[in-house]
């Protein structure tokens, strides 16, 4: 065929044949000698042809069918022939003169027949496949193995169906989370993102475009807790005693809420209604109930609850939540500041829970998560303001059954995972131990961003949650370099392996590993430093 001036000739690199076809994938044979010849090709995509995780294309009429190589083995009888299992990714049209792929779309409408020829995919093909299709995207890095093809995430698809970021300690997980959230903040400066930060490392990353809250300025009123959350904080008994204590607390809490003027005119006042009340009112009501002669139980349950409330009131570590200053009706102001309504160019709230007492941290996370969900439910007749809730160290709060039983934080986060998208609540889970997550939560995440996972059980867990087409990438998970990840699901057109961009120093979280060889050669000032540390330690403040 004569090629017009300035038009690239049609160059195709044949490497094998289709042998067997089934619904989502098939089996192909690859010629080892042809693959070896291509291994030194100047185009890195063609040089990778035939490797596990690489792509191939199969001609069907005027369209190209793209597939990913999942596994390989040598042919038992024929020398130099490789048997490979492949997963179909999608199809695109053929550019007549050059043979390149264009107009790529996910899914398969026409399957190849056994005997169809298999070709290597070029970088030009890859560029067409990974080119964003006009939807809102954020670019996070470079597609492996290319040097210039950008990997993008479809923001609406990723947030609309939740996402999970997974990776063992030290793989660059926190920096990757900061990168993705910075990109989203740049795209949507009037967004609404709430991030639970259990280690206090993200405040440094978002000091310029985020609102930062910790025990010193969070001021989260205790009366925002619902009944179950009250029980988790105030009731420490177990067995039959726990049920008795809960019944007493429910009765007294309802009476305390009813005393507030905000409760007047509310016909359906319940123990869950976020109506302010005084802790002193609650303890007085408990005292009064305890003094009644016709009460059904002994005084012990009343004493247990009252003792716990008095203990929390007297402990300065709980002042961010149980201070006497938090009795006013500040619910609107609290929601406005935490949910960034309006955002004013700072769309992300970093909630640093690292310096909170450990026995109340999960309750604080439960209250914040439930407030996000309840706000979304009760605002359905208003202009929609979707909220993204990002949960770092998610396995702490949504543990699997074998790790822990029911807790209020697990219940609400599981509910958000299952129902959140109906109400405009998106969930972002970040964890280093996906196998410790509650069963089913990971499968609710439409987009999975997996960095290196060293543990076999974690790898198996992710394998079960990933869609069929991404299975060829799974073998690469233990071999990923730092700051490299595999992305699959709704947020990308097809599964991709991406080398993530570098993040400017001032935008990184404070999660760098200590350099022992340098720090252990430094000395001086330890005495003064110890004095300052002990002072902060004793005052429980930073």
UniProtKB/TrEMBL annotation:
CDD domains, alphabetized: TrwB_TraG_TraD_VirD4
Domain Helicase HerA central: 138-372
Sequence intervals crossing the membrane: none
InterPro entries linked to this entry: HerA-like, HerA_central, P-loop_NTPase
Any single Pfam family the record assigns to this protein: DUF87
PANTHER family: HELICASE MJ1565-RELATED
Protein name (database record): ATPase
Species of origin: Sphingorhabdus lutea
Classification of source organism: Bacteria, Pseudomonadati, Pseudomonadota, Alphaproteobacteria, Sphingomonadales
């Amino acid at each position: 065929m004569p090629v017009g001036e300035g038009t690239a000739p049609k160059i195709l690199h044949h490497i094998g044949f289709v042998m067997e076809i089934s619904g989502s994938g098939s089996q192909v044979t690859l010629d080892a000698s042809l693959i070896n010849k291509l291994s030194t090709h100047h185009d890195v995509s063609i040089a990778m042809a035939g490797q596990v995780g690489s792509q191939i294309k199969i001609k069907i009429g005027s369209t190209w069918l793209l597939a990913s190589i999942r596994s390989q083995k040598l042919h038992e009888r024929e020398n130099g022939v490789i048997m490979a299992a492949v997963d179909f990714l999608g199809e695109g049209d053929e550019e007549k003169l050059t043979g390149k792929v264009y107009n790529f779309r996910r899914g398969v409408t026409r399957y190849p027949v056994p005997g169809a020829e298999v070709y290597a995919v070029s970088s030009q093909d890859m560029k067409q496949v990974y080119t964003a299709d006009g939807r809102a995207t954020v670019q996070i890095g470079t597609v492996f193995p290319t040097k210039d093809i950008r990997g993008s995430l479809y923001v609406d698809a990723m947030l609309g169906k939740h996402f999970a970021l997974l990776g063992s300690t030290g793989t660059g997980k926190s920096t990757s989370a900061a990168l993705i959230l910075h990109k989203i903040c740049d795209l949507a400066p009037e967004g609404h993102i709430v991030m639970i930060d259990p280690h206090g490392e993200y405040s440094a990353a978002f000091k310029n475009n985020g609102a930062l809250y910790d025990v010193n300025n969070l001021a989260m009123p205790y009366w925002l807790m619902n009944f179950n959350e009250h029980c988790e904080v105030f009731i420490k008994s177990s067995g039959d005693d726990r049920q008795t204590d809960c019944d007493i607390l429910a009765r007294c809490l309802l009476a305390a809420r009813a005393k507030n003027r905000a409760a007047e005119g509310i016909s359906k006042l319940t123990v869950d209604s976020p109506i302010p009340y005084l802790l002193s009112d609650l303890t007085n009501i408990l005292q009064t109930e305890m003094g009644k002669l016709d009460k059904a139980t002994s005084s012990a349950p009343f004493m247990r609850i009252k003792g716990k409330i008095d203990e929390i009131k007297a402990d300065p570590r709980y002042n961010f939540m149980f201070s006497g200053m938090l009795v006013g009706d500040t619910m609107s102001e609290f929601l406005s500041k935490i949910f960034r309504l309006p955002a004013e160019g700072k769309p992300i709230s970093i909630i640093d829970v690292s310096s909170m007492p450990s026995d109340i941290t999960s309750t604080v996370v439960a209250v914040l998560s439930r407030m996000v969900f309840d706000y979304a439910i009760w605002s359905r007749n208003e202009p929609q303001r979707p909220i993204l809730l990002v949960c770092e160290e998610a396995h702490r709060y949504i543990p699997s059954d074998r790790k822990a039983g029911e807790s209020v934080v697990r219940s609400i986060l599981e509910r958000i995972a299952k129902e959140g998208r109906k109400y405009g609540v998106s969930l972002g889970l970040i964890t280093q131990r996906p196998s410790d997550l509650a069963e089913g939560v990971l499968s609710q995440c439409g987009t999975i961003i997996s960095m290196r996972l060293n543990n076999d059980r974690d790898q198996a867990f992710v394998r079960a949650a990933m869609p069929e087409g991404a299975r060829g990438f799974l073998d690469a998970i233990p071999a990923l370099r730092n700051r490299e990840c595999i992305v699959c699901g709704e947020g990308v057109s097809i599964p991709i392996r991406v080398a993530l961009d570098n993040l400017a120093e001032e935008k990184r979280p404070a999660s760098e590993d200590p350099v022992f060889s340098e720090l252990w050669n430094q000395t001086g000032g330890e005495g003064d430093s110890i004095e300052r540390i002990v002072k902060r330690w004793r005052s429980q403040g930073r």
